[in-house]
Design goal:
With 365 residues, the protein is of the alpha+beta class. The chain is 51% helix and 8% strand. The protein is built from 16 helices and 6 strands. The chain has helices spanning 13-28, 42-56, 61-80, 90-102, 112-128, 138-151, 163-170, 177-192, 196-200, 248-259, 284-297, 306-312, 316-325, 330-337, 342-348, 359-362; strands at 202-203, 214-218, 222-229, 232-239, 268-270, 277-281. The strands form 2 sheets. A 4-stranded mixed β-sheet has the order 1-2-3-4. It has a two-stranded antiparallel sheet with strand order 5-6. Helix 8 packs antiparallel against helix 10 and helix 8 packs across helix 13 (316-325). Residues 5-29 have low confidence and may be disordered.
Length: 365
């Protein structure tokens, strides 16, 4: 049977060739190489290749793809202006940032956070080519500061999916193979406070696949997830729920049992009739689409128009939901989400703890 497929966003065809050329240029100009005064040999050449592999593993695949696109866009912009991308020119980069912010060129105006990310991408790309980009140079720093002062807006947070919401969402799912899988994704993602990428990167065992982002261990009292996350390796404990209908561990067990999965990726596609599991790992975009679909089907925020409801929720809504709903000490939520600071955890708490400490009354008013 044909397998369920996950669509991915493709690059605009007009920039595809440029992107390929720039990505190839990046690979050829990697900074890791033998010193010029050392004669090459088979052993050393293999070590160079190994070192380059480790260097590429220093950032996630998605980050590397984003940095490659950042470089391709900047290099193309330089060519259109009759300039060279190498070596770094703070003056030209300052003009590039101004162009991105003003929307004076053919590209649409970008947000401040996207411009900041583009600059980080350029800094990384220059470092791989043996150059240092001084972000504190006045041609860059003052332009960026002006962009932030003029265009910065408060970040738009996605709505948290609360306990009653997730119950309503999973209730809309059927009990065929696909429904079992999607129920396990939602409940596991919610109870673990997981990112989309963390959910789909899970394997059944350690080292099952080269692209594994972690593995699971199912125990009597719950499931232990070992994740290779943004902040490094961490363990996430997911306890069993009070009833099978909403227990993430039970949902996971049901999916693995009926899908006959005992090796490789935990969450995979299914055949069109939903009766057979494939061996292909799901794309993280499936999680985002699943959340939006079940939000609509479950009647979450039904007082709003459909377009607004869809815009309110994303993959981060699961993490925000756990942070907002779990009535436990904040440090436990911080550990579960893998945050380095309590301040970051508080950004995910949409309703919890507001006005818990009343400084107005404490000050005597």
């Amino acid at each position: 049977m044909p397998s369920e497929t996950e669509k991915s966003t493709s690059a605009p065809s007009g920039g595809l060739d440029d992107a390929r050329v720039d990505e190839r240029d990046q690979e050829e100009s990697e900074g890791i190489a033998l010193p010029s005064h050392v004669a090459g040999s088979g052993t050393l050449d293999r070590l160079v290749d190994t070192a380059r592999d480790y260097a590429r593993a220093a950032a996630s695949e998605n980050t590397l793809k984003a940095y490659a696109k950042d470089w391709a866009h900047f290099a193309r912009w330089c060519r259109m202006k009759g300039a060279e991308a190498l070596p770094p020119s703070p003056e030209m980069i300052g003009l590039y940032l101004a162009d991105l912010a003003s929307g004076s060129g053919p590209s649409p105006t970008l947000s401040v956070s996207t411009i900041d990310r583009r600059l980080s991408g350029l800094a990384w790309n220059y470092a791989q080519r043996g150059f240092t980009l001084d972000r504190k140079n006045r041609h860059i720093a003052t332009v960026l500061a002006g962009i932030k002062r003029k265009h910065a807006r408060p970040s738009v947070q996605k709505e948290a999916i609360l306990a009653e919401d997730i119950v309503a969402m999973v209730a809309t799912l059927p009990f065929d193979l696909r429904g079992l899988r999607d129920r396990a994704i939602l409940l596991l993602g919610y109870a673990g406070g997981l990112r989309r990428s963390e959910i789909v990167s899970l394997d059944v065992h350690k080292d099952d696949t080269p692209d594994s982002g972690g593995w699971i261990e199912i125990m009597e009292k719950g499931a232990l997830l070992t994740l290779n996350a943004k902040t490094g390796w961490r363990e996430v404990e997911i306890g069993r729920g009070s009833k099978d209908q909403t227990c993430p561990v039970h949902a996971l067990e049901q999916w693995l049992h009926f899908a006959k999965i005992d090796f490789g990726p935990v969450f995979v596609g299914t055949s069109r009739d939903g009766k057979k599991a494939s061996e292909t790992r799901l794309n993280d975009k499936h999680v985002a689409r699943l959340i939006k679909r079940t939000v609509l089907d479950g009647g979450i925020r039904s007082e709003l128009p459909e377009k607004e409801r869809l815009a309110l929720f994303s993959g981060h809504s699961l993490r925000a939901g756990l942070a907002s709903s779990a009535e436990v000490d904040e440090r436990y939520v911080q550990k579960q989400l893998g945050h380095a600071s309590a301040e970051m955890t508080r950004r995910y708490q949409r309703r919890r703890d507001r006005f818990r400490v009343n400084l107005t009354k404490a000050a005597g008013l």
